[in-house]
Design a protein that fits this description.
Largest sheet: none
Number of domains: 1
Number of strands: 0
Bound molecules: zinc ion
Oligomer: single chain
Strand content: under 5%
Amino acid sequence: MTMAVSCESCGMPLAGAELHALSDPAIPYCIHCAPDGTLQAPAERLERFTQWMMGQEGLDYATAHERALAYLKTMPAWKGSFQPASE
Ligand SMILES: [Zn+2]
């Protein structure tokens, strides 16, 4: 039985070692979230994820940003990294 592994930052399935940062299965992040082996800063990851989402979903920046933030807040890597904007 194999455990489903996915990036703890963005949730991308890590189906093979080559999808892990530095192709190292011990690193629980994908090549996009940790291109040099360490996790990107929250603001940078949020910005990149926003841009990615705009391209994928054809969203405007504000909508993509909102969705990206909501999504990343659910990921283990970012627990507590993004404070609620207004609550
Ligand atoms: Zn990732």
